[in-house]
Amino acid sequence: MTATVESQRSKALKRAGLTALTFLLMVVMCVPGLWVVLSAFRPNAEILAKPPVWIPQNPTFDNFRKIFGLGTDQVAIPVGSYFMNSLIIALTSTAIALMIGMAGGYAFARYRFRGKGGIFLGLMLFRAVPGIALSLPVFIIWSKMGIIDTKLGLIIVYVSLNVPFTIWLIDGFFRQIPLSLSEAAQVDGCTRWQAYWKIEFPLARSGIAAAGVFAFLTSWNEFALASQLTRSTTSKTLPVGLLDFTAQFTIDWAGMCAMAVIIIVPALILTFLVQKHLIAGLTFGGVKG
Amino acid sequence: MAEITLDKVVKKYGGLDVVHGIDLQIAHEEFVVLVGPSGCGKSTTLRMIAGLEDISGGLVKIGDRVVNDLPPRKRNISMVFQNYALYPHMNVRENLGFGLKIAGEATASIVKRVDEAAEILGLTPLLDRTPAELSGGQRQRVAMGRAIVRRPDVFLFDEPLSNLDAKLRGQMRAEIKKLHQKVRTTVVYVTHDQVEAMTLADRIVVMRDGRIEQVGSPMDVFNHPRTTFVATFIGSPPMNLLPATISGGAVRLADGTAVPIPDRLSDRVHEGRRVTLGIRPDDISPVGHGLSQDGPGAEVEMEVELAEPLGMESLIYTRLAGQEVQAKLYGPRLVQPGERLSFRMALDRAHLFDAETGRSVRED
Amino acid sequence: MPFWRRESAIPYLLLLPALAIMALVVAFPLIFSLYTSFTGYRLVRPDSLYDWVGLRNYSRILQDYDFWVAFGRTVLFLTVVLNVEFLLGLGIALLINRITWGQRTLRTIMMFPMMFSPILVGFQFKFMFNDNIGIVNNALQSLGLSDGAIAWLVDGKLAFFSIAFAEVWMSTSVFAILLLAGLFAMPRDPLEAAKVDGCNAWQTFRHITLPFLMPFAYIAMAIRSLDVARAYDIVTVMTDGGPAGRTELLWTLIARVGYDNSRMGLANAMAYVSTILSILFTWYFYRKLVAARRYMGGAQ
Ligand SMILES: Nc1ncnc2c1ncn2[C@@H]1O[C@H](COP(=O)(O)OP(=O)(O)OP(=O)(O)O)[C@@H](O)[C@H]1O
Ligand SMILES: [Mg+2]
Q: What is the mean pLDDT of residues B34-61?
């Protein structure tokens, strides 16, 4: 009797210990990221301090002010333009990739056709071409076409970068919706088109949103292609702009950390909004052929 | 008026034929059940009537329109799916009214008709729930409500009860029957459960391997199976089949046991013909414990191998001429394995099938 | 009826935009770069685009010691990071799967590194591994574990380690998340059956859990191999292939030859080799995935 109480208690204790350990582990895992975020709010002196100052002693927004060129005499980096460029390029390419991906994903999920497996694999393999390898010919061709160093040039590239994976995800989401729902709607008087918009699309909507977030993040974070295809403030994106903080021998760590925060925050918010669907889409698309 | 005509309807998947030219006439307001083992093409046939599957050959007519090339929405049908296919993002009210809304009905009339349908099916208190908040039986009812609310010419059901437990299935079966009496529409109903077929149908269509094996009223199919396949498929437990030969004016089983030829079949068989004797378990009983004591019969002694008491009756497994035979004992008497009993076969309801073709000798 | 009006044309029509953009932005450039790899094209001399040199670029690659070192290092890098990521991800997934309280929060925290841009990850670790102001050295010194400043990014081996560390930090979550999803999807019956059959914890894991998880591992591998080349960003920032080319991966080498030395023809030949390498990796895991899926049996 007491023995079972005893063993139950030790079990509960073990479980609590395990939970605490896991939490600790996860927090430690986040430290590198958090360190950069914390540093964004420190004055330069604290960043360079030795021994390190763990918790910011006097948090400040100076670093942000500085990179936007407010209040100091330092030459500003056009973070505002970079931010807008990134936003425009990522949003536009995501929207286009989503439209193309919705059509393609639906085709894979709902139709049998010749060459299906081959086309799917082909799309994925195209996606596997390393960005830097692709950038060489694209650089030359885009120069000839006159769309090098333009937002348009980058948007087109990012659409193609995102289409395969968007198709993979959306295919998975449509598969989760039983075919008989669309059939029921057609018996109920819908055309296939109506059945799509009134039944299948609303049910896949959150999944499609997740695919959109994924595409957005890919574009938002991309560096290899952007660093070669953009040059000027009219088209440079945030990841490329990050290099502005490196001079020949020195790096402006404070400014860089502040800019890092600017890049991370939108990504952070978006990911947390759709994380559940993201996981579902990733696994479902893969496991069920 | 909505009679349905299938004229040599064929379905092929690539090179594979799954429905081989079906001919079938379904009358206005008739309740027809397609029944058959798994994979025999019932669903495919139903879906061709619905327009969810292309028709590879032949004609499908609803009323006097050929509907081969019409999409489902133009056929004025409704369908209840096996997994109900309720729209998960709509509540019950919206599910019921969806078809009317698509058709452009006025809101007032949608409300009225949805309420009526809900009333008929006892769904009124559930109207604001979503499908996820309903039990299996309630979902089933919503699916039926969605079908009747549009007042179609034809109802199609594809195994609507197969996801329910046995008790609920019985209840819903009765409800479907009542519903049909109320709304009187032509119904095509697919099932592989012969009890459903027997209880619901005006006419049963027994299918096998993409062909129609027999069409007839439930009692007709039960009493006059045209083939051994129908004989074993309809009726539970299935009919006993014993290989035999006609010899010396009697049906002689493999071990030499002689059984008189049933009177009504005596002019159908000739000496030396190889046949299969078919007799339902209900018609083999220990002497004194059967359904009927008079009429032509034969008595054989057999040993009980296993007895399953079912309350007022028992199912007995025995052996005759080397074959397992099932028999029924009526009355609350318990028998033990190993007991030897004298059984009476009621021959007025026995069947003879040709040993080669499996067809009833009445068909010759 | 013309082809595009037929029912059977619908899937192709739906896929047309996708195929068109892939053709325009990937297939066509790849063909172009294949052509370029047979020329002595230099960015600074546009007419050299028509300077056909046959297989000279490829034969130069074959004899190029630096290239093969970078190639070998890239394969080593991929093998190491993918395996470490898999093992760590599996560990994390198993751990989180056992937690009942706060599991959702843990899952969210776990995804934190996933949303970092690779270039940011590079900077972040360059910041942390900095021999002078980096937190790693600072921490080691204040804990008394080392007395001098360790030159993490200057010593060749340490730099390779640092880069691999950054890469693993960034991508372990992908494995953890997908394997965790696999654990959630795992049916309970086989586990219980195994317990009844007398398997111990390790045997159950080895013979039931792990085989069930493998398709999920392959999905993760396939997804990861699609963008392993993002490690280019990290390396560029952290060491830029240095010191003295000792962290040079294929991708940084390509960028150097193509853009810095403007020898596009040669760079394209190298790019082709790296493209084929990536495609082989992806294809391999995709095949594994398909096979594992079939093996998982009937469940489509
Ligand atoms: N898309 C398809 N491609 C190829 N063959 C198919 C396809 N759909 C069905 N079949 C085949 O057609 C035959 C008839 O299928 P159908 O679904 O009509 O059977 P069923 O009588 O409804 O069986 P169940 O009782 O199991 O539902 C089966 O043998 C099946 O394998
Ligand atoms: Mg069926």
A: 93
- A26 vs C contacts (CB less than 8 Å): 106, 109-110
Structure tokens at B259: 């059984």
Beta-sheet strand order (sheet of B323-330): B284-286, B340-346, B297-309, B313-320, B323-330
Question: Rounded to an integer, what distance in angstroms lies between the CA atom of residue A132 and that of residue A130?
Answer: 6
**Residue C223: how many CA atoms within 13 Å on its side-chain side?**
29
Tokens of C179: 């394997």
Residue whose structure tokens are 């591994």: C129
**Chain B residues within 8 A of A112 when measuring between CB atoms:** none
Q: Closest by alpha carbon to B200, among B213, B212, B188, B214?
A: B188
| Per-residue three-class SS string for A13-58 | HHHHHHHHHHHHHHHHHHHHHHHHHHHCCCCHHHHCCCCCCCCCCC
Give the model's confidence band at B200: pLDDT under 50 very low, under 70 low, under 90 confident, else very high.
Answer: very high
Q: Are strands B77-80 and B65-66 parallel, antiparallel or unpaired?
A: unpaired
Distance in Å, alpha carbon of A287 to nearest chain C alpha carbon: 6
Per-residue model confidence as pLDDT tens digits over A132-161: 888 888 988 998 889 989 999 999 999 999
Q: What pLDDT, on the 0 to 100 scale, is given for residue A34?
A: 86
Tell me the backbone φ, ψ of residue B176, rounded to 5 degrees: -65, -40
Domain count, chain A: 2
User: Do B11 and B130 lie in a common domain?
Assistant: yes
Give the number of domains in chain C.
1
What residues form DSSP beta bridges with B216?
B204
The answer on pLDDT for C259 being more than 90 is no
- Outline where B157-263 has alpha helix (H): 166-183, 194-200, 218-223, 228-233
If asked whether residues B193 and B333 sit together in one domain, one would say: no
Q: Is the complex ipTM higher than 0.90? A: no
* Domain that residue B26 falls in: 4-233
Task: Flag whether the pTM goes above 0.90.
Answer: no
Phi-psi region of B36 (alpha: psi -120 to 50; beta: other; left: phi over 0): left
DSSP annotation string for C102-126: THHHHHHHHTGGGGS-HHHHHHHHH
B290 touches B313 (CB < 8 A) = no
Calculate how far, in angstroms, residue C228's C-alpha sits from the geometric centre of ligand 2: 46
Does B112 lie in the same domain as B160? yes
Residues B186 and B144 in one domain: yes
Tokens for A102? 């919705």
Share of chain A above pLDDT 90, in %: 26
Q: Which helix (H) or strand (E) holds B253?
A: strand B250-253
Q: Ligand 1: residues within 6 Å at CB?
A: B 13, 16, 18, 36, 38-44, 192
Range of the domain at A97: 79-287
